[in-house]
Specification:
The chain is an alpha+beta fold. It has 3 helices and 4 strands, in the order E-H-E-E-H-E-H. A 4-stranded antiparallel beta sheet has the order 1-4-2-3. 24% of the residues are buried. The termini are far apart.
Length: 89
C-alpha cells in the first residue's frame, strides 16, 4: 500500500470538474484507491464519494492506493494534483 499527502491547490478545490478528472484518471488503474480528509475516507474512484469530502483550496488529502499498479496510480494522481487539475490559476 502506498500513502501520499496531497494539497488541493486549484482555485475551486475538488469541485465537479476536478473530481471527474480524478475519477477518470483512476478508472484506468486496477488498484483500490481512497481519499481521506476532514476525518472522512471515501472511494477515490467514486465521483459522489470524492465530492462528499468537500475539499476546498488548501485542504490536505491523503491518497491511499493498494494493488498491482499502485505506484503508477499514486504517481499519476500526485501529478494531477501538482498540475492543479490542469485548471487556470
Amino acid at each position: 500500500m502506498i500513502e501520499r499527502e496531497l494539497l488541493v491547490g486549484n482555485r475551486l478545490g475538488l469541485h465537479a470538474r476536478a473530481t471527474a478528472r480524478l475519477v477518470q484518471l483512476l478508472s484506468g488503474y486496477r488498484c483500490n484507491a481512497t481519499l481521506a480528509a476532514k476525518g472522512r475516507e471515501v472511494n477515490a474512484k467514486s465521483i459522489m464519494g470524492v465530492m462528499l469530502l468537500a475539499a476546498g483550496p488548501g485542504t490536505t488529502v491523503v491518497l491511499r492506493v493498494d494493488g498491482s499498479d499502485e505506484a503508477a496510480a499514486a504517481d499519476a494522481v500526485a501529478d494531477l494534483f501538482a498540475r492543479n487539475f490542469d485548471e487556470a490559476a
